[in-house]
Amino acid sequence: MNNISFDEDRYLRIYTIHSQKGGVGKTSIALALAGISGARGKKTLIIDADMTGASIADVPGMECEPGSNFNKLILAKPNEFLHLTAKWPVPGRNESTSLELQFCRKKVATESVYFIPSSAGATDVEMIVPLISQEDHLHFFRHRIEDILATAIRSGFETIILDHSPGMFGFSKTSLEMSLEWSSPLSADHRLRCLLNEKNPEPTLQALLVSSFEPHDFKTVLASFQHVLERIFARNKNNKDLIYASFLDTFRIVFNKARQIPDSIKEVEKILTKVSDMDPDLKQMIREHETEYGSKLAPFIEGFEMGDVCSKAEAFGSRDKPGALGSEWENWFFTLACRARLIKPHDSHDGGKAG
What we know:
Elements: E1 12-19, H1 26-39, E2 44-49, H2 70-74, H3 78-84, H4 98-103, E3 105-106, E4 113-116, H5 122-133, H6 135-138, H7 140-154, E5 159-164, H8 170-182, H9 191-195, E6 203-211, H10 215-235, H11 240-247, E7 251-255, H12 264-273, H13 280-292, H14 306-318, H15 327-339, E8 348-349, E9 352-353
Parallel strand pairs: 1-5, 1-6, 2-4, 2-5, 6-7
Antiparallel strand pairs: 3-4, 8-9
Helix pairs in contact: 1-14, 12-13
C-alpha cells in the first residue's frame, strides 16, 4: 500500500447500506467502513438496522448487555423516544445525549467505534417484521431514524453507518429514499435537515447498494433501485433531469463476494445490455460509476472472518504497517474506501488507478 492519502475533509458522513439478498457481505462492509473511519480518529457509530434475526453483537468484541438494542430504541413509546432524542444533553454529562448513554456501546479495545445492535431474540423479531412490511405506507421507521440520526449528530458522531436487513423493501426502501432525496434540488424541506440547526455540521448521505457479480443478483438490485427512483420521480414529475443529476454522488453499487472478474466495467456492460426495461438514464449512471470506480472488491479472501474485518480495517486505516494485511485485504479495503469517498478517487494504489 503506497502513499494512501485519506480525504482529510471533516464532512460528517452517513451511509445507508442495502442489499436485495443476504450473504453478500453487507455487514462486513459496514464493519470495514467503521474500522477505517475509527482508525482516522472519527467518532463512528454503526446502527444495526437488520432486525430480522442476525445481530452485529454476535461479532466478537462487540457484545453488549440485553435490552440496549435497536429494536427497543425504534419501538420506544412516544414519551420515552422523545426523551432519548431530545435536543439537549443530559445534565452533568458533558455533551452526551440520553441516546448515546443508553444505547451506544463502544467496541472493545477501540476508542472511536460505537454500535447499536439489533436483537436476535425470537420475540423481538416476531414483533418487528410485520411493522417493517408496512413501512412503505406508514413511514414510521423513516421518521424515527431521522430523529435518531439528528441526535447522533448532536452527540458528536462524525461517521454514521446504517446497516439494513436484506430485501430492498419496507424500512430499507424508505431509508434509501431518505439518502437519495438528501441531495435533490427539492431537499430544502428534507425532514432530517429540518431537525438539525445551524450549529450542526451539514452531513453527506450516501446509499451503498451491495451485490455480487452474479447477473441475477445485480439485475434484482437494479430493478429494486429503479422502483425506488420511480417513486421519487412520481412525487417530482417536473424535475426528473435535475433529480437524476443529483443522484450521481448519493449512491454507489458495491460488488462483493463475487466470482473473479477480470474487468468489472465490461461485466457490468454485459448485464446492462440484457436488461431491456431499465430507464436509459439509470443505465448511464451505472456505466459512469463503474468507469470512475471500476476496480472490483476482492471476491473470496482466504480466512475471511467477519470478526476480523473491523480490526483489519483499523490496521489499514491507520497505515502503520503498509503491506502487513496482504494484497487481497488491502485491495478490498482500498476499493471500498474509494467508493465510499473515504479516500480521494484520484489517489494511486500500488501504481494503479484508484477504484
